[in-house]
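User: Fold both of these, please.

Assistant: Here is the first one.
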Amino acid sequence: MKILAILPASIGGRLTMQSIFDGFELNGAKILIFDKLKDDELILQNICDKNKFDFIVGYDFAGLKIKIDNGLNIKSINYFSDVIEDNHSGNYWEKYYKYLQETDNFTFYWDQELFLQKKSEIKNIFYQPHFVNTNVYKNFNDSPEFDIMFAGRVDTDFRLNVLLDLMQTFEDKKFAWYAIERHFLDAKKRTKSLEQIKLLEKNYKGFISSEKDMAFAINNAKVFFNFNAQGISSLNYRTFQVMACERILLSDKRAEAYDLFKPNEDIVLYEDVDDLKSKIDFFLKNNKIYKKIAKASRNAILANHSSAICVKKMLENVNQNLLTK
């Protein structure tokens, strides 16, 4: 099996797709990557002229757009972790939405509630939560440098205020915040207190752009907190990254946390900011319970949410669908 893999421009999409590409390789496929940040259309044409692909695989509409624009006669697999009918999936989504209906294009949707809403409208659509390559995301058994970590943007006042509140509450702890530099600069602009600006500057640790670097950063911290923004019921990619690394993840409540995991056994959910603070404090002080839940977290990912298992399931869905046509 030969795959034309489209590495998207978005940072989150690049990390997500790398675990998907890894999954295809773990299932015996040969991967050729077209990088939308680095490669031009001439490279794409050269790749397609020299190879016969079984599938083009892309994030959101990126792979389907390339297929249609270049007249490629290849079956497509399109993984969405953004709302399909929204500019987050590409500001060109309205033009390409109709192609999801074609029999050789397959859609995998990360959010169960959104999947159920689209199930009767899009022919070849399947529910597939996030997953990670557990050979990359694993416990390195190192002693973490940081006590608390958050990775992501704080593009709402709520997120920024929570981040600052936690930095102030746990000022005596080592705190790491990773984000794109422009999100860091934007947070500083929106922060009026000089003391809070200094906290942001003290705790901002830069930007992570690769799977290996993210796995290292996760291993270098003990407790993580998370906000789920996209979708309705789903858990974001960070959830699976952290759990696979055998670390404690504190997540806001989402329906799929109850469907996919066992709250308080392998994932920990918080009610509000006060509860989040209390749970951070608890897990920093109670190492025995920490280790028990962290171990269960990784085992849960290994059992059902690894790249090898989930891509195999995706291919089984595609092949079964093709057999019934």
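And the second sequence with its predicted structure:
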Amino acid sequence: MKLVAQTAPYIRKNVSVKRMMLDVIIALMPVTLFAMIQNGWASIYVILISLVTMVSVELLSHMFIKWPKDMKFKELFTKDGFSKVKSTYTINNFTAPIVSALIYALILPAYCAPYVVFVGAAFGIFIGKMVFGGLGSNIFNPAAVGRIFVGICFGGQIGEAYQKQQAFIDAAAGGTPLAPVKGSLGATGGYDLLDLFLGNVPGCMGEVSKICIIIGAIYLFARHSADLRAALGFLLSFGVVMLVASISYLGVDANANVGEIWLYQMLSGGVLFGAAFMITDPVTSPVSKYGRVLYAAIAGCITALIRVCGAFPEGVAFSILIANMLVAPIDYFMRGKPNTYTWKQCLGLGLGIALVCVIVSASVMGGWF
């Protein structure tokens, strides 16, 4: 008898990587089409540059990572050499960077300078993915890596892109609906909640139309190509913290509308987009059930902390990258434990969220004293 070492779980769903990637691409189509219709060619060239860059960089990087042993470079230009290199590629080497490219483009504003889109796409796919070994080996979300990189290095250019986009949308001034209310939780920035839901506001291309995001998310979850636990963990943790922050604002303005403030925060920025298409990434998520809920809840709490206490109006991409760094410790903590939920785990998660609520409440009300 021969013993073969394998990794649990041993019973798996009939869901291949190929099918999951194709499902994500299909689910992204509503927001992608909406962005094209709303912004025209200004969004199309951003998406195209992102697609070409990420697919090309991944293919070139993969070629050298999987380069056949003892094969010289000049052999690549022969029929046999080309066949050897070609045999290392699969459909997943095309669909995976397409998914990352679409997500990266959709978390950028239209009218971004082409070089900004290119630099972020190349940096995200190479530094965020290929240096770790490629498909299935990366610990960071490539789209979030690229977006944060250009946001830090080319903040001025991205701000100009927001301003150009503003001229084509009938809405109040400001880069995103979160920008004019930063520092004043009770403000609404002149945006109507219905406009926030339908997408008649400025912002990153994929985050504005909540109805398109919901349509794509329903498809993903119906096809079991995304983990509903992670999405709900992110939304519920963020929603609870922001609800406490909204209630705390009554200490600043007794006439504040708590429900309106809370809905404004839930419908603004990239919370729904991040919950549907980024926090559910299986490669950069923990493997256990509770681990994924904990991971998503951490990202949701950090997003709320950045919005209320931080210097940036939005924090979804930042929070996802920070949570990505905690995936390995979470998996280590859950190693050897039952793949289920216990009351101790739920109590610990609840206490953690409660602590964040206390911090946010104190920040909104102006301090501890």
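The CA atoms of residues 136 and 206 lie 25 Å apart.
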